[in-house]
Write a structure and sequence with these properties.
Chain lengths: 149, 367
């Protein structure tokens, strides 16, 4: 089969577009891609504290979409806004359930969305990969302990 | 492959099963098909800006042009119409996804992602209608789109009132594409308001005034979204903008996109730029691009190759991300599509999550 020149050229273009790229070098940045010293560095193990969860989960994963003026459901999970928009705030999809109900992880919408059994909407993080049990366990523990800031 | 193609009964039964399972999927939309054929979105979809329920032409197209094989006899003749005023449709999507992150065990998820039903009721034929797009599973029903549409009979002008998806760039099936995440406008984020649209032979345009998806809870404001598409025999070019006013900070998004064909290849490209005041450090500017090639290998067989780029903060150096996808799409019959693919993420080396790999198999039932 004779392959037309324009097809070969097109695929060469694709090959070129795929080469030479591969993500930033990360020089001068923390694990969240932010300049060193700007926020909590996610290096080190995740713990059941808000700052650790923010640095390991909310900032690098959730705030890709949940940030800025078009954040879905108005839920901004950047370091400045996440606590005030999570704790004791009713969910938009299920207003009878708080996003984070201190002391009650089972009835916290955040946990239900992360574990995939919320009554409405998609499991989060949207499109995956979903958080593993050990990670969710730390978030559960933070909520069980009162969801302190 | 010949054995698979030689088993139409089994595949036909599978298609019927998929259609009956629950009808899912994120709203179907594959703009490369429009580019490949030179058709507008409105040529095949009830919704003038594409996606969701297909019209009679779209159903005929889906049954005769896209699939590798003819419709099973038991299902032939379906065009979505139930009488002269009501049209229905649906999608169902099941997926098995493996995610590999360096240093962690590979995670595997098998799940029905979503089931949707669409309905369009013509109150006054070609002038006034009601459209509904409802997620019916696997969880509680959830309204995605519900609007009243008023139009001139030729759709040269139309208006939508209610809840709907906003027009911005390519309406991709993959809502996790960088350009859809960065713009904040995709088929996961409906908004409420009004849309005025125009359809002319060489032009399509939409202008939307809506609440803004982020303007809920303690945030108030509105969003103005506009899109203009120029269609020519060689392809199409489009420009989009979204201007968000919010008590939490303003946001401006701009997009340029285009599509063309070279032989059996259909190309899509998009570049989006966003400036957003709603970040802790103040205004953040970011950018994403998409280059997608769709190779029609044989009828019913499409190979999709995408290269994406994302700069999450133009002020910060060395933080860029890339994503490459290779996806094979096989459509044996009009009501069934099988997709298998690989996505490779590339980000800064200190973030393993941004360097993950996804492999997946998806089964789509649609009617």
């Amino acid at each position: 089969m004779r392959v037309p020149l324009r097809v070969i050229a097109a695929w060469c273009f694709v090959a070129v577009s795929f080469s030479g790229c591969g993500g930033g070098s990360g020089a001068g940045l923390d694990g969240n891609g932010r300049p060193l010293g700007e926020g909590d560095d996610p290096n080190g193990p995740l713990t059941a504290s808000f700052s650790s969860i923010q640095a390991h989960i909310f900032t690098p994963i959730c705030s890709v979409c949940h940030a800025g003026a078009s954040a879905p459901q108005g839920l901004r999970l950047d370091a400045t806004n996440s606590y005030s928009l999570l704790v004791n705030v009713p969910s938009r999809e299920e207003p009878g359930i708080k996003r984070v109900a201190p002391g009650d992880p089972d009835n916290s919408y955040l946990i239900q969305k992360l574990e995939g059994h919320a009554a409405a909407g998609n499991r989060m993080p949207y499109g995956g990969p979903y958080l593993d049990e050990a990670t969710i366990a730390q978030i559960r523990l933070w909520i069980t302990n009162g969801a302190a800031q | 492959m010949s054995r698979i193609l030689g088993a139409p009964r089994r595949l036909g039964a599978l298609a019927l099963l998929a259609a009956l399972l629950g009808l899912v999927g994120t709203a179907q939309a594959e703009p490369y098909l429009a580019v490949r054929t030179g058709l507008k979105c409105v040529a095949c979809h009830v919704n003038p800006s594409g996606g969701g329920l297909r019209n009679a032409v779209g159903n005929a197209f889906a049954q005769s042009v896209i699939p590798a094989n003819d419709m099973p006899a038991a299902l032939s003749g379906w065009n979505g119409a139930l009488g002269s005023h009501l049209r229905i449709g649906g999608d169902v999507r099941w997926a098995s996804t493996d995610t590999a992150v360096d240093g962690q065990a590979t995670s595997k998820v098998n799940a029905t992602e979503q089931a949707r039903l669409y309905a369009d009721l013509q109150i006054l034929a070609d002038k006034l209608g009601v459209y509904v797009d409802e997620t019916v599973g696997p969880k509680v029903p959830q309204r995605e789109e519900a609007y009243v549409r008023a139009s001139l009979p030729d759709m040269s002008w139309y208006a939508k009132f209610g809840q709907f998806y906003l027009p911005f760039g390519w309406r991709l099936q993959d809502n996790t594409a960088f350009v859809r995440q960065v713009s904040g406008i995709s088929m996961t984020v409906p908004d409420k308001g009004i849309e005025i649209g125009m359809e002319r032979p060489d032009w399509s345009a939409q202008l939307d005034y809506t609440n803004g998806p982020g303007n809920v809870g303690g945030f108030t404001g509105h969003q103005l979204t506009g899109q203009l598409i120029w269609l020519q025999s060689w392809g199409r070019l489009g420009a989009s903008t979204a201007q968000v006013t919010s008590t939490g900070g303003a946001r401006q998004a701009y997009g340029l996109f285009g599509g063309t064909t070279t032989g059996p290849l259909a190309w899509l490209a998009e570049i989006d730029y966003v400036g957003d005041d709603g970040y802790p450090e103040g205004r953040r500017r970011f950018m994403a691009t998409l280059l997608e090639a769709n190779w029609l290998i044989w009828k019913g067989h499409n190979l999709k190759l995408t290269s994406e780029y994302y700069d999450p903060d133009l002020r910060v150096a060395n933080d860029q991300q890339d994503r490459y996808s290779l996806i094979y799409e096989y459509t044996p019959f009009a009501f069934l599509q099988v997709r298998a693919g690989l996505r490779i993420y590339k980000g800064i080396p200190q973030n393993k999550f941004d360097n993950r790999q996804l492999s997946f198999i998806e089964l789509h039932g649609l009617f």
